[in-house]
Amino acid sequence: PLASGVLPLALGEATKTIQFMMDADKEYIFTVKWGESTTTDDAEGEILEKSDKRPTREEIIAALPEFIGDIEQVPPIFSAIKVDGRRSYDLARKGKDVQLKSRQVRVNSLELFDHPHQKPSPREAEKELNATFKVACGKGTYIRSLARDLAEKLGTKAHIISLVRTKVGKFLIKDTILLENIEKTVYKNSQSEILLPVKEVLDDIPVLDFTSEEAMALRYGQTVSFVDSALEGRIVSIQSEGELIAIAEVFDGFVKTKRVFNL
Predict the structure, then answer these.
(1) What are phi and psi of 153, to 5 degrees?
(2) Scanning 54, 128, 229, 261, which has its CA 20 to 30 A from the CA of 19?
(3) Residue 164: beta bridge partners?
(4) Can you tell me whether residue 100 is helix, strand or coil?
């Protein structure tokens, strides 16, 4: 409920590109409140534990490298992960004992974005409880878990009070529109500039240009011979005469489609 930011939406044939959005790297800016852990690892939950320790800027910066790279983390129990076929958050809300396994995630960068003075004036005392970070990470990374684990490393407790996703793949928060504006914008003009070509999602994977005959064969699920050792095992975008045809994979000297577009 406290999260906001970039959410790419796919319509029609573009839904076939969703996997690329799911797998894309993401970037967040988040604020933690030191001194309290909660049941949900954010401000929506009930307080579990308290700590009087407030980490200094130097302590925080010294701890950050341990959370960069391939790291292990246990997702929050209030998450969408399935446990025996049911969402973890459904079980947690019913008071069930939920045990989630640790898993490996990728954190590309993590930096202290803002930190108040160590000894604030009384007027600034509430702000002193907070610190803001910027993180770039791979899929499946839970920022609430990251904040919780960082606090544990620093010998205190914490939970997230603000979370903004600033980037998903190539899509940036500066290019977004408000959710409530989508309906009136799209339905008044189906050619609205907020609707981007499907190619926009695929512009970071190799593009192969095939003849119309080869493109037709691929549309019907046939394989097409293609030898390029550099692309072996890679996912590629297939085009013909400037038209997007399919997402395909190069395998054993052939190209085989994974998703065919009808644009």
Answers:
(1) -60, -35
(2) 229
(3) 4, 29
(4) coil
Answer whether 192's CB lies under 8 Å from 220's CB.
no
In single-letter form, the type of residue at position 51 comes to S
The span from the CA of 249 to the CA of 236, in Å, is 6
Tokens of 36: 């309290």
Give the global pTM: 0.81
Q: What is the pLDDT of residues 145-185, one digit of tens each?
A: 999 999 999 999 999 999 999 999 889 999 888 887 777 76
Single out the residue of 182, 121, 168 nearest to residue 7, CA to CA. Answer: 168
Alpha carbons 76 and 111: distance in angstroms, whole number: 22
Please say whether the beta carbons of 173 and 164 come within 8 A: yes
> Pick from 157, 146, 187, 162: which is nearest to 11 by CA?
187
> pLDDT tens for residues 178-201?
887 777 766 665 556 677 888 888
